[in-house]
Amino acid sequence: MGERLRQVSAIIERHPTIPAEAVIKEDLLRTGLAFSPAALQLAAQFKAKAYFIFSFDLVPLAEMGQQEHWKAPEEIWMEGGDWGFRRTIVSVRLNPHSPYQVDAVDGRAFLRVDGTPICEIRFPPVPEYYNRTLASGKRVIEIAPTIEWGYLIYLTVFRICQYFGDKEECQFCDINENYRQQIKEGRPYTGVKSIEEILEALQIIADTDSVSHAYTLTGGSITSKLKNQTEVEFYAQYAAAIEARFPGRWIGKMVAQALPKAEAQLYKNAGVRIYHPNYEVWDADLFEWICPGKARYVGRDEWIRRILDAAEIFGPSYVIPNMVAGIEMAQPNGFTDVEAAIRSTGEGLEFFMSRGISPRFTTWCPEPLTKLGKLNPQGAPLEYHVRLLETWRDTHARFGLPTPPGYGEPGIGKAVFSVSSFMDVIAPQPEPVVPAV
Question: What are phi and psi for residue 94, nearest 5 degrees?
Answer without folding.
Answer: -75, 135
